[in-house]
Amino acid sequence: MAALAVFIGGCAHRESVKQEARKSNLPSPGPSPNSSSARIALHQLPLTSANMTAAKCFPLGIKNRWLYRVRDSKGQRYFSEYQIERTKKMGGKMFYISRNTQTNQPNTFSHLYITMASAGMSTYRIITTSNRLSAIVDYGNFRKLPVNLPANLTPGRSWDSKVNAIIYVTGSIKPYRLHGTISKTETITVPAGVFQALRVTTSIDYQGHRSQTTAWYAPGVGQVKFSNQAGKLTHDYELQGVTVSGRTAGTFETSTG
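RESULT FIELD:
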């Protein structure tokens, strides 16, 4: 997703979509949902062992929404939004389909297929569309999915996940390797507020390249901050607005003033 521990893949995927694309009749992106309705304040859950789980730290639910301020190492500043639009059952698993848009690429958007299983949270499919061209990549298969975030988030824990990625445009299969480490809880201040969050670092080896993401997760809120480095390019994301289960923190305004 671009940079997820879970959103990993989005930035690089957007860069290559024009080179690895095929015709698609997927719909073009529409306007963001209206955010002017009355809001109930969102507060993170306490940092207890019962809440330090992938399910609590990456809350999945239709209409859950995250808006990030982004700054990259080239000096660009823009906004990136993720919103869970719907669910779809495939291969006996329920997937939440999240749509990612970026204000600096108004004609490009991605859909991420995310699921929560006993092993943890996994991103299975990413479809990136630019105008009417799309690139589709599946990570693993229904029997074996990558573990982007393990079920139990115990500080000091590390994990490894290895699957094959299928790139449909080229018909190629590439190894996808992930190594993750769970660090410690920290106080993180972002435009959406102040959160107690768990730091998780993941590194990805894919198509001959390595990327690394450091992300901070707050129970009941999601990723409040993350930074992705791929080669010489770095993207830093800070949460500006979030809605989970109808409760909101921060704002969804995208004015750069």
